[in-house]
Design brief:
alpha/beta; TIM Barrel; eight-stranded mixed beta sheet; two-stranded parallel sheet; globular; binds iron/sulfur cluster
Length: 351
């Protein structure tokens, strides 16, 4: 049961979030990749090959988080690299959790060692790509990755910390995603999905690179992908632990239909933005940064931002699922429906 102090803090957070949700013309989602360091070697990822020792200090990140709050951000995803590798991550997460619906990503290696650090966040997302230990470890490039991740999920669930499993769907695991989903939702563990995607930009000034083109991972069985979306939509009707929306799954389905349908306009730098480990702000990681986080308050309304928003609105360069989700919830009506979904999540916090 929540203590009186926690309840007051929680209510203050909810009131502040609701005010920001209802403000229009401002971004609501931010991804902050607080470190470029990673201890895994995933086959479909560039991050570990392009690590950087430099990153913002704790004080700089907290200052940046305040700016994001004042800019209207409601939902914050903290990732990396692996953000839990930062020695000051407890302080960052405590501060973030006071102001945002906060999700932190972990590759599965750190969460069980940082239980107390994770108590206040709204979701801890643990990456597991297969129930087959050998296969999962081959994808992650590290022996023991599967055992670590399964242990992390167990430990977080046992401690009552809201954990979600987040596989990256690729051709490598496409046919086992439903088994993976059934297994975890059967244990009461929510699922969110990433979609294997790779950076096609030839722009060497893009903020940073994530996905690496890999023939084994590129989804070629489009029919199976359409079927998977249909199965997930059906499963959602019976189980609330699939953290996707029907609208998002239908949008994903459209990408793999015989005649590809793209049912959204990208809302990069409009409804969502990305901040990298050096505090540089961009609409998404595929484009060059546009300003420093510390200049965001003065830059937000300027002409350069407006021009970039319009350019990104017509961009169809990538299929990163989180960007699609943020784009789908760009209109005021969609924001209200998303707010209702998130409200359910907030209520869970009070249990
Ligand atoms: S996918 Fe994540 S865990 Fe894997 S190497 Fe890249 S940043 Fe690290
Ligand atoms: S579609 Fe949107 S998120 Fe993807 S590269 Fe273009 S601007 Fe960025």
């Amino acid at each position: 049961m929540a203590s009186e102090g926690n309840l007051t803090t929680g209510l203050r957070k909810v009131a502040s979030l609701a005010g920001r949700y209802l403000s229009s013309g401002k971004p609501h989602h931010a991804q902050w990749l607080v470190t470029r360091k990673c201890n895994y070697r995933c086959v479909g990822c560039n991050v570990w090959k392009e690590q950087d020792e430099h990153e913002l200090s704790t004080a700089e990140i907290k200052k940046g988080l305040t700016i994001l709050k004042d800019s209207g951000i409601v939902e914050l995803t903290i990732s990396g690299g692996d953000p839990l590798l930062r020695p000051d991550i407890a302080e960052i997460l405590d501060y973030a959790s006071e102001h945002f619906i906060t999700t932190v990503y972990d590759n599965g290696s750190m969460a069980a060692k940082k239980i107390d650090t994770l108590r206040k966040v709204d979701f801890v997302a643990i990456s597991i790509d297969s129930l087959d230990e050998t296969k999962n470890d081959a994808i992650k490039g590290i022996p023991g990755a599967w055992k670590n991740a399964m242990h992390a999920v167990d430990a977080l669930q046992k401690e009552g910390i809201r954990v979600a499993v987040t596989p990256t769907i690729s051709q490598k695991n496409l046919y086992e995603i439903m088994d993976l989903t059934t297994y975890f939702i059967g244990r009461g563990i929510p699922m969110w999905f990433c979609l294997y995607s790779y950076d096609t930009s030839v722009d060497t000034r893009q903020l940073f690179r994530i996905g690496k083109a890999n023939d084994e991972f590129i989804i070629t069985d489009k029919e199976a992908m359409v079927n998977l979306c249909d199965q997930l939509i059906e499963t959602m009707k019976k189980n609330k632990n699939i953290l996707m929306t029907k609208k998002l799954l239908q949008a994903l389905r459209g990408l793999y239909e015989t005649k590809e349908q793209r049912t959204w306009k990208c809302q990069a730098l409009n409804q969502f933005l990305v901040v990298d480990h050096l505090g540089r702000v961009s609409g998404c990681h595929n484009h060059n940064f546009t300003c420093s986080i510390f200049d965001l308050p003065t830059q937000w309304k300027n002409k350069k931002f407006k021009t970039l928003q319009e350019t990104y609105h017509n961009c169809t360069q990538c299929n990163y699922l989180c960007y699609i989700a943020y784009s789908l919830y760009g209109s005021p009506k969609s924001i209200i429906s998303l707010a209702c979904d998130q409200w359910k999540n907030i209520k869970i916090l009070f249990k």
